Every structure is written in C-alpha cells, then in structure tokens.
C-alpha cells in the first residue's frame, strides 16, 4: 500500500514536472508570438505613420494660415499708409480751397471796388442790361433839372420848421417828466435822406432821433453782437442794453453775482441799494423780471410823454399834432387848418458808449422791425456817421458833383416802379449803401457832373452784381478803410462784414420779388424818365443799347 501510494505520488510529480506550462520547450510557442508581435508592430507603425501625416498636414495648414495672416497684415498696413497719404492730400486740398475762398471773399469785400474805366462799363454789364435803352446825358440832365430840382426846393424850410417844433416839444417833455424817476431826454438830431439832401419823393418826411439816458444812479451797459458775446447769426447787427447802477458798474462789486449768506453783508452796498424789486426794473422800462431795456416799453413811455408834452404847449400853435401810424409809435403828423400836413418821425435811441452809433428802438417805414428777435434786442444805426461820410467826401469832389444826383435818380426810379408793381425787399437804404461803396472806390474826378450817365450805370451794375450774389455788405461794419477823420469805433471796423441781403437768402419769395422789381425798373427806366423830360431833339435822345 505505501509502495502504491509512493508510485502514484511519483507519477503525479513527474507529470507535473513535465507539464509544458512549467517547462516549455525552447521552440514551442515562439513562432506564434512573433507573428502576433510583428503584426502589432506593423499596425503600430501604420498608426504612427498616419499620425505623422496628420501632424504634418496640421503644421502645413498652420504655416499657410500664418502666411495668410502676415500677407493680410501687410495689405492692411499698406492700406493704412495709403489712407494716411490720402488723408494728407485731402487735408492739403481743403486748406488750399479755404485759402482760395478767403482770398475770394477778401477780393469781393475789399478789392471789388476796383472797377474798370468808362470804356469798359458797357462791355461788362450783366444779362439784365441786354436790350435796355439807357438814356443819354442830355436826357438825364433834362430829367434831373425838371423832375428832381423842381421838387426839392422846399426841403430846407421844412427841416427848419420841424427841428424848431421838435426842440420845443422835447423841452416840454422834460418839464412833464419826473427828473428823479423818468428817463432823461437829450436834444434831437436829424438823419436820413432829408438831411443828406437826396430825398425826391413826396411826402417829405424828416427823421429825428432822440437819445435818452436812465435817471441817476443808473446807467446803460451796452452789448453788441461783435463785443465777444455769443450772438446767433440771425442776431448780427443787434445788441442788448442792460440797466445797471452806476456805482456797481464802477466798483465791479460781485455782491449781485454771488449769493451771499444771511449773515453776510456787502460793505459797499446796503441791503436797500442791492435789492432790485421787479416793479423798480419795470419802472426803468426793462423787460419783465430782467434788467434788459425793453423797446416796446420805451416806445409806450415815449408816446405817453410826447402826448403830455403836446398838451402843455398846444395852445401856442395853430395846428394839431397826432400820431400818424399805429405800427410806428414815433410817427407824428402836423395838421394845419388849411388842410396841409407835415409828417416827421421822432424815434428814441440809446447812445453806444461815447460814439455816434445808436441803438434804435424801431425803424420808421421799414419792415426790419418785424425781424427783430425780441423786444430786448436793439438794432444799431450808423446814420450819423453815414451823413458825416457823405459830407466829408463831398468836400473832395468837383463842383456840382453827380453823386447825389445819381442816388436821387435811382431812388426816384425805384419808387415809381414800386408804385406800379408793389413794394419789394429792395429799399432806399440799399441804394444809399451802393453809393457809399462807390464813393469810397472811385477817385474824386470820376464824380464830375458830366459823368452822371457813367456813374449811374456803375450803381445799376453794382446793384445787379449784389442781387445776383445775394451779398450787399454794410458800408461801415467790417470796413477797415473808413476815414480816420470820422472817429468811427474800431470794434465795428474789425467785425465780420454784415450782409444786408442775408435775410433774403432763405426767403426766396421776397428775393424773387426784389429781383423782378429791379429788372422791371430797368425795362421801364427809359419810359419813366421820358415821361418827365422836356422835348429834346431826336439826335440827342437815341438810347445806348447794352449788349
């Protein structure tokens, strides 16, 4: 039994020892494992090759993208440089254009006066003169002698009578006013066509301006559109008048500009003097709740004061005095018992500093008042300097110079045309402005009496040019060539030129009417002049055709 067990155990041990899993033969499984490994290695190699191709493709794509970005950057940089060069050329072109435009405006404003000689006048007339028969010297001389001189002989006597009565009326006005509370009225001055000796159409109307000042201790502080304050373009030519206390203006105290505390007191002004009730400022003719002088309040006060003054002196005169126009508070009319009447305008004004420029409350017989922005805006009038300039230039002209005759004839023709076709935007002041420009541009000898025809052509030609360009500049504002003898304020000489035709730029209907009236006047000029001309031999009446 033990031997059998021993044999069995030995057999088991031998079987175990000889089992191939424990002691495999040298060439038993190697071939099979090698093939698998080779197959796996090939598969691995193939996958690695594919991965390498994929990576190479990605790298190529990245390089292509980088090159595209670099190329785009180069293109953008080039476009930027091109844009900079273009912007530079654009800016340079704009600068050149602005310089040319400034030169053109300067040429128009300053050198337009360099008009050619008489031999070139006919050649440069505009389209409006084509086919128009212009009266010759003999016809013009006869017309002026018969129609103009025959109607202006009574102007001197009328001026003398009106001035004397106005002085008496203003003296009575001072007596009825409260010297401590009402405005102080100064002596009147005559301005306009009646005092420049070129008014031709009846009824003759004298224009008188009356400066006034506030009672003590107040004063007027004037501001104009060219004094540095911001005024919109439609308010050029206007200004405002502020009513201030004289002591405040002199000391420059800021107690009125700064809100002081309840426990603080200004040592220069008491609480009584610094307080300005609304009623007090309204008594000083200011606009409600402001310190600015109100033109409407001034005209109401002036009208009431004139009425009181007339009631005081009416017993001295054998005529009646009344206000002739409701829309012109200063328009007065003297009515005699015989039925005759004399009209004149008495308009209150405020002096600008120490000059003869005045703020005017309204313009008699003018549509400009309707364009005033508000009743606290006052228009500036240079009528006194205009009169002085004409007087100054007249001293240098030949005897019996034709400058006034030109303006009289043109004013007569324009008035006649307006009576036929109705009023237009063109006024006698525009015609006078044309003459003032030509008086400054033309040498003295060109205004000899025998050159009336040529100078009248100059005025019509210049007016046609202004109508075409919609530009007629105020003679004094922006004019650096004003004679120093006039003592004209430098602030207005240095201001931007003021275009008198600017209101018509946007109002095309009025502008069209103005141009049509001018053309109609040219076409009817010969007929209007011949109507008032005595018979002249045919050899002297052939008109000159304007080609």
UniProtKB/TrEMBL annotation:
SMART domains, per the entry: Mab-21
Alphabetic keyword roster: Cell membrane, Coiled coil, Glycoprotein, Membrane, Nucleus, Signal, Transmembrane, Transmembrane helix
A Pfam family reported for this protein in Swiss-Prot or TrEMBL: Mab-21_C
Ranges in a coiled coil: 38-72
GO terms, molecular function: protein kinase inhibitor activity
Membrane topology, as annotated: Single-pass type I membrane protein
Keyword Transmembrane: yes
Cellular compartment(s): Cell membrane; Nucleus outer membrane
Span of domain Mab-21-like HhH/H2TH-like: 404-477
Keyword Lipid metabolism in record: no
InterPro entries referenced in this protein's UniProt entry, alphabetically: ITPRIP-like, Mab-21_HhH/H2TH-like, MAB21L/cGLR
Reported function: Enhances Ca(2+)-mediated inhibition of inositol 1,4,5-triphosphate receptor (ITPR) Ca(2+) release.
Family membership: Belongs to the ITPRIP family.
Name of the molecule in the record: Inositol 1,4,5-trisphosphate receptor-interacting protein
Organism: Gymnorhina tibicen
């Amino acid at each position: 039994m033990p031997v059998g067990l021993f044999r069995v155990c030995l057999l088991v041990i031998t079987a175990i020892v000889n089992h191939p899993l424990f002691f495999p033969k040298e060439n038993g499984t190697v071939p099979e494992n090698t093939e698998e490994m080779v197959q796996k290695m090939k598969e691995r190699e193939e996958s690695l090759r594919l991965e390498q191709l994929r990576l190479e493709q990605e790298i190529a794509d990245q390089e292509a993208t980088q090159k595209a970005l670099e190329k785009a950057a180069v293109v953008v940089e080039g476009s930027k440089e091109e844009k900079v060069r273009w912007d530079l050329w654009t800016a340079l072109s704009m600068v050149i254009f602005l310089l040319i435009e400034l030169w053109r405006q300067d040429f128009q404003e300053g050198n337009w006066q360099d008009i050619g000689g008489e031999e070139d006048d006919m050649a440069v007339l505009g389209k409006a003169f084509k086919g128009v028969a212009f009266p010759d010297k003999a016809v013009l001389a006869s017309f002026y002698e018969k129609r103009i001189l025959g109607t202006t002989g009574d102007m001197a006597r009328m001026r003398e009578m009106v001035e004397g009565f106005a002085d008496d009326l203003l003296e009575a006005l001072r007596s009825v006013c409260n010297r401590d509370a009402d405005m102080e009225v100064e002596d009147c001055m005559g301005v306009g066509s009646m005092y420049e000796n070129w008014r031709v159409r009846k009824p003759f109307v004298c224009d008188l301006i009356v400066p006034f000042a506030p009672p003590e201790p107040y004063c007027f502080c004037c501001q104009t559109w060219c004094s540095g304050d911001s005024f919109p373009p439609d308010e050029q030519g206007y200004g405002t008048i502020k009513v201030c206390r004289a002591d405040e203006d002199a000391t420059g105290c800021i107690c009125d500009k700064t809100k002081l505390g309840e426990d603080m007191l200004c040592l220069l002004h008491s609480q009584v003097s610094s307080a300005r009730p609304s009623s007090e400022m309204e008594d000083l003719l200011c606009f409600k709740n402001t310190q600015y002088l109100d033109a409407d309040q001034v005209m109401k006060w002036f009208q009431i004061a004139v009425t009181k003054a007339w009631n005081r002196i009416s017993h001295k005169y054998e005529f009646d005095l009344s206000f002739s126009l409701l829309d012109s508070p200063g328009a007065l009319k003297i009515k005699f018992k015989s039925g005759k009447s004399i009209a004149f305008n008495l308009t209150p004004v405020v002096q600008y500093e120490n000059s003869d420029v005045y703020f005017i409350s309204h313009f008699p017989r003018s549509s400009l008042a309707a364009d005033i922005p508000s009743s606290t805006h006052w228009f500036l009038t240079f009528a006194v300097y205009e009169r002085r300039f004409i007087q100054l230039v007249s001293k240098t002209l030949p005897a019996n110079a034709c400058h006034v005759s030109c303006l009289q004839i043109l004013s007569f023709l324009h008035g006649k045309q307006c009576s036929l076709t109705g009023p237009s935007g063109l006024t006698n002041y525009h015609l006078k402005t044309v003459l003032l420009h030509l008086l400054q541009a033309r040498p003295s000898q060109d205004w000899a009496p025998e050159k009336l025809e040529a100078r009248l052509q100059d005025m019509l030609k210049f007016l046609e040019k202004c109508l075409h360009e919609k530009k007629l500049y105020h003679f004094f504002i922006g004019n650096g060539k004003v004679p120093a003898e006039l003592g004209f304020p430098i602030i207005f000489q240095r201001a931007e030129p003021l275009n008198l035709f600017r209101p018509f730029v946007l109002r095309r209907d009025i502008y069209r009417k103005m141009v049509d009236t001018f053309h109609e006047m040219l076409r009817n000029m010969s007929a209007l002049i011949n109507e008032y001309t005595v018979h002249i031999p045919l050899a002297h009446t052939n008109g000159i055709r304007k080609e």
